[in-house]
């Protein structure tokens, strides 16, 4: 099993990382990031909107792992969309993280009338080498189709809400056909689906928890997965998924848990 995935531009992204949405700036973020890196995680996913970039950067420095062995993602917030403001927001993110570059910069949400101008700036940032890859988040198929009418560079990633109760199969197929890597946010359903009996039953066969089963389901479905936790034991548990494999039958059973229910906002009517 390959622990990294090649993006369309040839760069490699770890398939399993730490997400830090709702992780508090300060010790909580510093420690979570440090524990994750000590555990073996090499992907950290933050965003300007999470307001913890400074602590994420601090955690990275405290872990003492060479910069080029770590993959750092951050995202452009909605209020900063537009050409000039994107360039400025990116500089601010780098300054907070205290990094010279990020590995992936994403447009956080498809703000109508703005995301094309933002994308022009993203392309320039990419060409300057200060973002090694660029992509989008929460884009539906029609947003991407629209972006592609002006894009010189096809987004390398689309990060969307995916978990066993929102499997997003049509969008995932579209993304795969366009060589856009799929990344899942709220991959554990924000922890709300961990008591699901199907997931627990499957886990029993392998002596694994529901969380580990879900993470494995993402990995085996070619989805980059960034579970969030602020507890060291869970951060470790969530990374302990490379010593077992789900069967096709297990995966089919988990696919069938889909109810198309979102936990987060629908990009179609998000109040930007
Ligand atoms: P905590 O941060 O207190 O550990 P998602 O990644 O889908 O957003 O899910 C994150 C939620 O799931 C958080 O509330 C987190 O709580 C919880 N969580 C993460 N990993 C585990 C785990 N292995 N077991 C139980 N809960 C977990």
Automatic annotation (TrEMBL):
Residues 15-258 form the NADP-dependent oxidoreductase domain. Pfam families: Aldo_ket_red. InterPro entries: AKR, Aldo/ket_reductase_CS, NAD(P)_OxRdtase_dom_sf, NADP_OxRdtase_dom. The active site is at residue 50. The keyword NADP applies. Keywords: NADP, Oxidoreductase. PROSITE patterns: ALDOKETO_REDUCTASE_1, ALDOKETO_REDUCTASE_2, ALDOKETO_REDUCTASE_3. Substrate binds at residue 108. This is Glyoxal reductase. Belongs to the aldo/keto reductase family. GO terms for molecular function: oxidoreductase activity, acting on the CH-OH group of donors, NAD or NADP as acceptor. The record marks 75 as: Lowers pKa of active site Tyr. It comes from the Bacteria.
């Amino acid at each position: 099993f390959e622990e990294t995935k090649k993006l369309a531009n040839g760069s490699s992204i770890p398939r399993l990382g730490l997400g830090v949405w709702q992780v508090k700036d300060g010790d909580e973020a510093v420690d979570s990031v440090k524990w994750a890196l000590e555990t073996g995680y090499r992907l950290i996913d933050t965003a300007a909107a999470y307001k913890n970039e400074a602590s994420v950067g601090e955690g990275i420095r405290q872990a003492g792992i060479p910069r080029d062995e770590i993959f750092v993602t951050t995202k452009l917030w909605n209020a900063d969309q537009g050409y000039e403001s994107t360039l400025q927001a990116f500089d601010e993110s780098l300054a907070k993280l205290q990094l010279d570059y990020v590995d992936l910069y994403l447009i956080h949400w498809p703000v109508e009338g703005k995301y094309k101008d933002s994308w022009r700036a993203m392309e320039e940032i990419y060409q300057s080498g200060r973002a090694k890859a660029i992509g989008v988040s929460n884009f539906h198929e029609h947003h991407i189709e629209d972006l592609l009418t002006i894009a010189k560079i096809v987004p390398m990633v689309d990060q969307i809400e995916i978990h066993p109760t929102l499997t997003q199969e049509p969008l995932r197929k579209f993304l795969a056909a366009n060589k856009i890597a799929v990344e899942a946010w709220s991959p554990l359903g924000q922890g709300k689906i961990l008591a699901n009996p199907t997931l627990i039953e499957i886990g029993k066969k392998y002596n694994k928890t529901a969380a580990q089963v879900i993470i494995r389901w993402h990995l085996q479905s070619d989805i980059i997965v960034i579970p969030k936790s602020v507890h060291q034991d869970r951060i470790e548990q969530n990374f302990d998924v490379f010593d077992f494999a789900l069967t096709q039958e297990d995966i089919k059973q988990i696919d069938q848990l889909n109810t198309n229910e979102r936990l987060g906002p629908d990009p179609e009517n998000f109040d930007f």
